[in-house]
Predict the structure.
Amino acid sequence: MTTQERFVLKLFVTGHTPRSERAIQNLRRICEKELEGHYEMVVIDILEQPEAAEEEKILATPTLIKALPLPLRRIIGDLTDQEKVLLGLDLLPSPMNPERIS
């Protein structure tokens, strides 16, 4: 990742449930460790903003959308599998492309 590259992340949750809170905490921890302040994280509660969920076609929560940098990615779940999240954010090499994004 270059120091100029900024990640824009949208996390869709449903209320203040333990699963939603876990997803928020997991994402914050991952972002602080891996992105070192080069990110914008927006938490959207679909109970309070159902139109945002409809616009993004959210079918399950928690859902994380990486809007920037492209390509757009979606990760569904409470984000406890850090390797899966890093792979989804393009911060780990995929099995098909062994070069780590940096």
Q: What stands out?
A: The chain has one domain: 7-88. Residues 7-88 form a domain with the Glutaredoxin fold (CATH 3.40.30.10). The chain has a mean pLDDT of 89.
